[in-house]
Every structure is written in structure tokens, then in C-alpha cells.
Amino acid sequence: MSNSISFDFLIKVLRKVFLFQNLPDHLVKQLSESITTQEFEAGKAIIEKGDEGNAMFVIISGKVKIHDGNEVVAEINEGNFFGEMALLDGEPRSMSVTAIEHTVVAIINRNDFFNVLNDFPAISKNIITQLTRHLRAQNDVLIAQWRSREKELNDLVEKRTEELANKNSELMLVLDNLKLSQQQLVQQEKLASLGQLTAGIAHEIKNPLNFVNNFSQLSLELLEEFKELTDETERAEILTDLKNNLEKINNHGKRADSIVKNMLNHSRTRNDDKQLADLNKMSDEFLHLAYHGMFANNPDFSCYMKTNFAEKLPKVNVFSQDISRVLLNLFNNAMYAVNKRKKLGVMGYEPSVSVTTSTVNNCVLIEVEDNGTGIPETMKDKIFEPFFTTKPSGEGTGLGLSLSYDIITQSHKGKLSVESVVGQYTKFIIQIPV
Amino acid sequence: MKVLIVDDELDVEQLYRQRFRKEIKAGELEMMFAFSATDAMSVLAELAPMDIVLVLSDINMPGLTGFDLLKFTKEKYPHLNVVMVSAYGDADNMNRASSLGASGFLVKPIDFTLLKEKIFSI
Ligand SMILES: [Mg+2]
């Protein structure tokens, strides 16, 4: 027992403690005799979590907090006690206790406490009541903490949900933009291929138009001659010529017409319906358009063009504009490849692009083959990917083949495949179900 | 006088034959046709070049081009006149033709009066 605190005062204090309220006088006295007191400055630890629980404490003066790290479970002052739990169950301290202000505590040792308990078992009731109170209080604190945590958590979830919703609408916007740019890219690719076509178209129209002009001019002159002639044989000759010329005019007129139709078809934004198309005719026309387009852009360009068209090729229901883009793209690539190989300057190289049609298993096959540079094995998987291009920047959009692939496999439920040997050939095979 | 006309368009034959009907009938002119540069080369190899006075060649033809033919002809038969014919009358093509030794350049559609003059001035 500390010298500064009187025995009587201690008895008074213990009496005030709920736990010892009903304790007989002699036992309170006995307890008081074994008690020691200790002083703690503000901020000093009285109990540390994990300490051995070998005593309980009664606050004689001052104020302490019961806490677990930063979490304060309770603040108690004069007349209250703490540390009885560990005393009962003998477990290490589950909480720390620290003085908030200058505090004096009375320390009741485990053995002394148990002696009192033996002599006066009725105290157990107080202990249980007290424990229940403590537990309840602690429980309330925990529940309150849990509630506030729950609220925090709910708030957090709400905040996150809102953030996600915002992110989501942002992403939707990005997606919309992407779709828009994709459409623009597709349009750009169309325009690029149309640009390439223009030269080919101009040439392909100019040739038949020249014939139309030449033959009609010629026919006018023949008619003049005819009027003056008297010799029947000569007149008959001229009539034959005239008839032939009119046929030529008609043929070349149709040829020009078909090219213009193709061009309009090619540049139109979208075909609404599939139409029955003669793929031989389309292949032939676009092979020549591509050829003249290449030539107009590279005056040195030339290649042999071979066509092997199946005689009774069934007409196929297609989006003809889309198919024409695929054909043009494949022919352009083929011609680009042969031109590239030709530029290597190997003697005796004859650049050649061929197109072959056939029917296999209820499918129309169009094979576009060139004897150009070929495609390395490692690139074969990538060539159908968007933006993949081997051309120098500015020369290709890298969309041609990926669009072609989509057109054949998606819009026409067909197949587009490639075979190639580097330095020998490349063959694209379009397969469209009839 | 024998002229070899080279063009990948088959109908040029009918056109030229009618255009030069009178000259052909009168025996002033004989026309031969080839529909590719390779064809033309074998025609030239077969007929002694002295038999032919003029080659009139298209430039843009599948396979070997008119320029290839021009080069070949000028190397093998330097004295043979070659006149190029093309829908593309740009300076590049014209310069190229003259640097390879062409004796003329006609832009399609052909002005036949001009062509006649050209042929008979040889
Ligand atoms: Mg031509």
C-alpha cells in the first residue's frame, strides 16, 4: 500500500466500486490491506495489449481510456475499475489502458482477488453483472463501430457505383466515338480505293468512248461516200462496214456504261439488298480497273493478266458493291506485289496476276493469284487484322484486307483464305455459298 | 509501205482498216496488227524489219508495255521508226518516249489526218 493514500480512504473507494458493494466489512478490509497504488502521468500506459492478466485496477483519481491501438472502446474515471476480465479468464490482455490525465490506480492482485472470491462467493453475481455490463458496453461500441463502418462501406460502395456508372457512360461515349471513327475509316478506305480507281476508270471509259467517237465519225464519212457511189459491190461493202461499226459503237457504249455503273455502285454508301451478280463479269471488270489504276499511278507498271472463268458459273446473291471492293482490294494487292518483285530487277521475271472462278460444293470460288513477293508464314495470321499493312505509310490504310474479310465472312457467310510461298506466289481464295 | 500497229484493243484493226481503206485498196499502204508487245516482237523477228517502215505502238498493254517494245525495237532495229500512241499524253510519258528513241507521240483519240501525214512523210 502506498504511503500517500490512507487505509480508510481505500476502503471508501472500494465500497464505491460496484463489484465490492455487498462485500462484508472484514473482507473489504482484508482486500484493502493487500492493495498497492500506483500513479500514472497522462499518456502513460497502464496495461498493454498482450500483457499477462495478473491484476485488476480501481481508479482512485484521474481518467483512463481503454483502447485497441487507435480504437478507443471506453473512457472511464474515478470509482471505476478495469482489467478484471483477464483476471478471470487468465488470458493475455485484450485491450490496452492508458492514462488520459494524471491517474492513481489501486492494484488488486490475482491471488488476493481470488481469496476474496473464495471467502465470499456471492461476489460472483456482481462479477457476472459487471462482466455483462462491460460486454454489453463493448458490444455497443463494437456495434456502433460496425454500424459506422457499414455506413462508410455503404457510402463507399455507393460512391464506387456512381464512379463506375460515370466511367461506364464515359466508355459508352468513347465507344460511340470509336464507332463513328470506324465508320469514317471505312469511308476513308472506300474513298482511297475510289481514288485509286479514278485513274483506272478514266482510262477504261476513255478507251470505249474513243471507239464510239471513232466509229461514229467513220460511219458518217462512210454514209457520205455511200451516197456518191454507184457500184453495187462497193456499196455493199460499205453497208457491211456500217453494220459492223454500229455494232462496235453499241458494244463500246455498253462497255463504258457498265464501268460507270460499277463506279457508282462502288462509291454508293450502302446497298440495301443483295442482288444476283455475275461474278465472272465483275472479276473481269475490276481486274482491268485495278490494272489501269495501277498503271496510272506507276507508269512503269505492267503485268500479264490471265482469266480462267468457269463457263456456267451460277449467279450469286451478293452485295455487289461490297464484293467489288473485295475484288478491287485483292487485285490491287496482287498488282502491288508483282510490281514490288519486278522492281527487284530479276532477269526474265514476268509479273502476272490471274483470276480463276469455279464452283465447288455449292460454293462459288474466286481465286486471285499473283507471282509477286509472297507473304511470309509469320504474317499470314496478321494480314486480316485491321490496320495491318506492309506498305509504306501513306500508301495503305491497312483496312483493305480486314474489311474484305468481314465482307466475305460476315455479310456473305463465306470464307476468305490465303496461300503463299515467299518469292513465288500468293493466292487469295474467296468462297461464297450459292 | 508496211506499217505494224500494236495495241491490246482488238477493235483498232477494224478502225484502222476502214480509216485507211482507200490507201490500202490503192496498194499504198499495208497494215499488220499485233495485240501485245510480245506478239509484235515475233512479227518483227519474222518479217525482215526492212519490210516494215513504221511501228505504231500503244503504251499501256498488259504484259510487256509499249516502252518495252520501243526499247527492244530501237536496240534491234535502230533505223525502224516507232511512234507511240497513248491515252496518257503527260510530259513524263512523252519525255520517256523520246529519250528511248521514239520518232513521235500521238495522244488518243488519234487524229487520223495527222497520222496519215506522219505515215506518208516517212
Ligand atoms: Mg491499251
Question: Your description of this structure?
Answer:
The complex is a heterodimer of chains A (434) and B (122). Chain A has helices at 7-16, 25-34, 84-89, 110-119, 123-228, 232-267, 279-297, 320-343, 377-380, 400-411; strands at 36-40, 45-47, 55-61, 63-68, 71-77, 81-82, 96-99, 103-109, 275-277, 304-308, 316-318, 352-360, 363-370, 415-421, 425-433. Chain A has 434 residues and is an alpha+beta fold. In chain A, the strands form four sheets. Chain A has a five-stranded mixed sheet with strand order 10-12-13-15-14. Chain A has a four-stranded antiparallel sheet with strand order 1-8-3-6. The longest helix of chain A has 106 residues, at 123-228. Chain A is rod-shaped, with a radius of gyration of 50 Å. The model of chain A has no long low-confidence stretch (mean pLDDT 84). In chain B, strands 2-1-3-4-5 form a five-stranded parallel sheet, sandwiched between helices. By secondary structure, chain B is of the alpha/beta class. Chain B has one domain (2-120): Response regulator (Rossmann fold, 3-Layer(aba) Sandwich), CATH 3.40.50.2300. The mean pLDDT of chain B is 89. Classes of the chains: A alpha+beta (434), B alpha/beta (122). The interface between A and B is medium-sized, with 26 and 22 residues. The complex binds magnesium ion. Magnesium ion is lined by residues 7-9, 58, 60-61 of chain B.
